[in-house]
Design a protein that fits this description.
single chain; mainly alpha; 434 Repressor (Amino-terminal Domain); 2 strands
């Protein structure tokens, strides 16, 4: 993997470029927890290879931003648009970046856990109280069913951000509710909905975002993610 700023480390850890060291560390711990190998939900969103790549990118980001000297060199390279200094490039191009700095543990081996019971369990939407006639429910809201729009959703073959936003508004889910439920920053949710692909992080993260959004909205997550990621890649996403 080579990084010429197609993957911004600050965006990966969801911190501001002027974030102090303690915020960098907290963001790193949060990201590792979210994408931990111990999290069974990870395997319903990503393949084992994608999960390994996500943790690799998180480790890589912290290796640089958590080291004052490397961070300063990274910031200087970022300001001038590259290239990366050799000290950082050696981490980016290493088979396992965590092995470069011996104060970090190696990334875990990914073996997908047995999710047969989890996969057979009904989703939150199906365990909710049976709605009244003409009323739909998500895990976050109730809404008045519009059969014409429901047919449009069922027949849709392309799910871009505009359609996802229309569905969210139709189902009475606010952007703040969605952010709280998915732990995705509002700025990323807004970038998804406006098809602002260049403001979104690496593709493996975006796929996870879209899967989570689709599930909250009661959509076919794989169909939505497949469609959105095609648009993401063709639109210049990272």
């Amino acid at each position: 993997m080579t990084n010429n700023f197609e993957t911004n480390y600050y965006e990966i850890l969801e911190v501001a470029p002027n974030a102090p060291p303690h915020e960098i560390h907290r963001a790193y711990q949060r990201a590792k927890s979210t994408y931990s190998a111990d999290n069974p939900a990870l395997y319903s969103m990503f393949s084992a290879e994608e999960a390994r790549e996500i943790l690799r990118i998180i480790e890589e980001a912290y290796m640089v931003l958590g080291n004052p000297t490397l961070r300063r060199a990274y910031d200087e390279a970022l300001a001038r648009g590259g290239p990366l200094p050799e000290s950082i490039a050696s981490i980016v191009n290493a088979p396992n970046p965590s092995e470069i700095v011996n104060t970090h543990k190696s990334l875990p081996d990914f073996e997908a856990p047995d999710t047969s019971e989890a996969n057979s369990a009904p989703s939150p939407s199906t365990t909710s109280k049976i709605p009244e006639p003409g009323v739909g429910r998500t895990s976050l809201s109730t809404y008045q069913i519009d059969e014409e729009f429901e047919n449009e959703i069922r027949n849709a073959t392309e799910f871009d951000g505009t359609l996802l936003q229309r569905i969210r508004l139709y189902k009475n889910v606010s952007i703040d509710q969605l952010s709280e439920a998915t732990k995705i920053g509002r700025h990323y949710l807004m970038a998804v909905e406006t098809n602002d692909y260049k403001s979104l992080p690496a593709a493996v993260f975006v796929r996870g975002f879209v899967v989570q959004i689709a599930r909250i909205l009661g959509l076919d997550d794989q169909k939505v993610a497949s469609s959105y990621m095609k648009l993401f890649r063709s639109g210049g996403g990272k």
